Amino acid sequence: MSLPDKVKIVEVSPRDGLQNEKNFIDTAIKIELVNRLSQAGFANVEAVSFVSPKWVPQMADGAEVMAGIHRRPGTIYSALTPNMRGLEAALAAGVDEVVIFGAASEAFSQKNINCSIEESIARFEPVAHAAKEAGLRLRGSISCALGCPYQGETPIASTVNVARRFLALGCDEIDVADTIGVGTARRVGEVMRAVTEVVDASRVAGHFHDTYGQALANILAAMQVGIQIFHSSVAGLGGCPYAKGATGNVATEDVLYMLHGMGIETGVDLDAVIDIGQWISGHVGKKPASRAGNAMAAKKAA
Ligand code: HMG
Ligand code: MG
Question: Candidates 16, 21, 51, 144: which one to mutate for ligand 1, based on the most atoms within 8 Å of Cβ?
Fold first, then answer.
């Protein structure tokens, strides 16, 4: 299959990137991050999550972040909503898209959202229904779609099963997420091919963590089977509190460098993203993890 001309990048650093940070990042910094990202041209920014603050304290200020941002027309602002309480908060905050998040692995489902896969689907039913009633976009994220920190390699049938259930709940987009970054290109191609037999490829996204340095290869493998939506995080920030050792999402700068280099359009200003990556890393107290970002920042400084 030929590669796409255009790819949509969902920038997840305000949520997936920051959720794992131990020191609380000021609300004003989160607001500035979301604003700078939308100004850089991202069509979709995963801005906040409305989850239990006991489980993920860093995301406790989601309502304030949403109230403080400047909405750029053309950008979809998303929020994670694990239950009706989360959905109500998302509706009050005026998000454009809500994300239900389940796992392809039983053990991870228990650790992350404290229930079985089946129970999670039942819990998502009213959330999905209410989201659709309110006219919101609905996205379903499948964690541990390639492998699980507790159960090892995920059977392809488990991932396809959750994809099928999410589709039945009315999801507009479905994320195949390699939460711990263990997948390699051939397997990613196989999983994506199997998922796209159930869900149209135009509605499937790849969410790759770069723990084992495989994310760019996996994005290429996914594009080769027709996937055109990818998630990434500026400066490679991120990690999941319930997936020990899982490092950040693939760095947005690296993804943009690869895609633009291949002549694939994203609508995002890479130069602006380089500056955002350096800036937010300073606030988080980390060295930016993007190879392309660091190389280009060094060139700019020279
Ligand atoms: P629970 O303890 O089973 O449920 O948590 P609960 O209903 O008993 O709630 C516990 C407490 O949280 C209660 O407070 C609730 O009121 C409160 P208390 O009575 O003890 O004072 N609560 C809430 N507060 C605010 N907003 C809410 C909410 N819901 C309950 N929406 C629950 C179940 C799902 C709530 C919990 O497990 C949870 O919040 N988990 C969060 C998990 C999470 O955010 N994980 C990280 C994101 S997923 C991810 O990173 C993967 C992804 O990136 C893709 C990938 O890479 O794989 C998406
Ligand atoms: Mg993630």
Answer: 51
Residue 1 in domain: no
Structural domain contains residue 129: yes
148 is catalytic: no
Q: Which atom of ligand 1 is nearest to 112's Cα?
A: 42
What share of the chain has pLDDT > 90, as a percent? 93
CATH number where 212 lies: 3.20.20.70
- Number of domains within the chain: 1
Q: Are 264 and 2 in contact (CB under 8 A)?
A: no
Amino acid at 190: E
Q: What is the pTM of this model?
A: 0.97
Confirm whether 242 is domain-assigned. yes
Residue 2 maps to a domain: no
Candidates 13, 19, 48, 52: which one to mutate for ligand 1, based on the most atoms within 8 Å of Cβ?
52
pLDDT tens-digit series, residues 135-149:
999 999 999 999 999
CA dihedral 62, 66, 68, 70 (to 10 degrees): 150
